[in-house]
Design brief:
The protein is of the alpha+beta class. The chain has 2 domains: 157 residues, no CATH class; 106 residues, Arc Repressor Mutant, subunit A (Orthogonal Bundle). The protein has 18 helices and 7 strands. Helix 1 packs parallel to helix 4 and helix 16 packs across helix 17. The longest helix is centred in the middle third of the chain and has 19 residues. The chain is globular and about 65 Å long.
Length: 346
Amino acid sequence: MQKTTGLMQSKTMGSVASHIASYAISRGVPLQEILSKLDLDPVQLLAADARLHEETFPKIMNLMAESLPNEAFSLDLAKVTPFSALGFVSSALEFAPTFKEGLEVLVQYQSVLSDRLSFSFESSEVTTRVQLRHPMDALDRGITAELGCALLFRMVEEFYGVACHVQQVSFMHKPLVPLHLYEEYFGVTVLFEQPSNGFLLANEALKSPSRLPSKPLYDYARAHLDRLHKDLEKPEMQSEELQRVYDAICENAALAEYGAPALAQRLNMSLRSLQRIVSRNGAELREMLEDVRLANAKQLLGNSDLTISSIAHMLGYSEERAFRRLFKRWTDQTPSEFRRAAKETA
């Protein structure tokens, strides 16, 4: 197995997750079940500047889908989620001079929302296609993609009044509720199993001015986003001693060893000393070990020639069922489901 180096789990802005959790609780999903499913403590979920593992969103969406079968809850969430949940991205979008410049804000600062979010727009002679996509989309059958598109649609209508220019909405997945519920929300034709998620709109929408244009507020929001974007581009682990720990984790991982005692032995220190080093650098040892193990699991599952049993062995599990159980907890999918979804996404 190829050694994994410098790879940490990708993160997503956590403020939206807190609103989703609040909505789920209001619909009868117990808070403790949410925290257990997401493997979070309440502080992480409520912290205004938290960045959560990107698997958090498909996990909570799948939990809600189980509790609210046959409901268009992604569209309901888009109706009630405050724009402030998107922080200064929302502010820059609201105060941008024109809709085109608002779209450029989303392109430039897409990683502020989520490390691996892909947002783009492309114009032809008469129309512009706005597209958004995330590698996690397949893990919840497209529910988060629906929320993202529906929330963006609501935002650009309230900020610029461009809904009348939208000609078509598209999603990559299959419809999860009756088609008329989507078309009632968007007011246009909604297509599924398409090459991308997003909208097709007339080019004249790009010139639409903001309903609340403000250059001082726009510049202020952009300056804040520039600082945040710069901070996010910095390596997540700046401490040399923490990087040394991480490198040792990767070296042990190449030998199918993911235990904390073996890691301490490789570093020639006691387990207590190792835990103290990791803690004072603001990290958590178990999470670091699991991050590398999960990254390697996903990499190995991409090789269709490997059986689930052999992958479990290569990841240091004595039993295949232990790997299946933990992978399900990490991603809310079985290894086979993840492999199939990844293949479909590719």
